[in-house]
Amino acid sequence: MAKVAVLGAGSWGTALSIVLADNGHDVRLWTHRAEQAEEINETHRNNKYLDADLPEGIKASSDLEASVKGSEAVVFVVPTKAIREVAKKVDPFLEKEAIVIHATKGIEPKTMKRVSEMLNEELENYEYKEIIVLSGPSHAEEVAQRQPTTVTVSSLQIEHAVRAQNLFFNESFRVYTSNDIVGIELGGALKNIIALGAGVSDGLGYGDNAKAALITRGLAEIARLGTSLGANPLTFLGLPGVGDLIVTCTSVHSRNWRAGNLLGKGDKLEAVLEQMGMVVEGVRTTEAAYELARRQNIEMPIVDAIHQLLFEKRDAAEIVQQLMTRTKREEMDDFASILRKDQGK
Ligand SMILES: NC(=O)C1=CN([C@@H]2O[C@H](COP(=O)(O)OP(=O)(O)OC[C@H]3O[C@@H](n4cnc5c(N)ncnc54)[C@H](OP(=O)(O)O)[C@@H]3O)[C@@H](O)[C@H]2O)C=CC1
Ligand SMILES: O=C(CO)COP(=O)(O)O
After folding, report:
1. pLDDT grade, residue 342 (50/70/90)?
2. For domain 185-342, which CATH number applies: 1.25.40.390, 1.10.443.10, 1.10.1040.10, 3.90.226.10?
3. Distance from first CA to last CA of the chain, Å, rounded?
4. Is the pTM of this model over 0.90?
């Protein structure tokens, strides 16, 4: 069994630590707050973030060097905005034999970089092709209860993805592999924007028809942008694509859905984020996707609408009206263009 360092003691870092400890691994759950490490080690719980008893195999620590030293795998699970800071801090201690995995879902505003690209820039000894992402429809709350969950791990070097698959795979946590890291990271990050929209729709009092429309047309936007950036269009029909989109748009566990729901009910963004107390990745990813869509010259009306709501202080009901009254068009236009692109036409 391996020593594994999990960097980030929020809800997802804690849930992934449970999976690893269930598999018999010796888990170091690193937090930047010493008092949180003490609390976890004394109570075997991480109450602020997850309602679960933690297995004995998890030891929390605020000592980064001790956490990663001798680890066979290092798993980054801090929010996107903290990735560079934590990667810079951990770089001097990383041993080349360790595989680097991340389970963070976001795109960096301004640089428009995916998390694996940010890690590649910050970690001296790792090549881009070695970095692994873990993503899929997986709310921490259900993983902690060992409810059946499926995710995908991806790396350009498939043997790295297989090592991650072996590390996490168990009877309630089924892990697939893929080499489409671009599609998998984009699917996981962009669905958060659509989940904000699904929450807004519910907050406004709209029903299942509206939500199904958002999910379906949201998937078309994600696939259009993703394909323009080199992703395999089929990835968006998989777990880290439509799978994660469904779970995030329809679950009360989703922080993005919950934040959107409060916005739809009329609360202000700053108040909503303060109230959440956990990361709502879709907000910063909206900034990045809005710019990416312009750079790639891709039409993304739902992303534009969420951008207007979050950053241009537009009224939610007005934005829905604007989406509904866009120019008439043929439904499968976007898919036809994705297929043509995939076939090199
Ligand atoms: N929750 C889930 O079900 C899932 C989440 N994800 C993704 O995982 C990532 C992490 O999310 P999640 O765990 O839910 O977020 P949470 O908000 O639950 O926790 C974030 C954690 O990161 C810590 N943190 C924040 N900034 C820093 C920093 N600069 N240095 C060190 N630690 C820091 C926080 O510390 P502090 O307590 O001090 O604020 C906290 O422990 C996100 O990208 C999310 O999209 C992916 C799949 C499922
Ligand atoms: O990515 C997730 C589930 O797969 C978690 O989504 P939220 O961050 O919206 O809770």
Report:
1. low
2. 1.10.1040.10
3. 49
4. yes
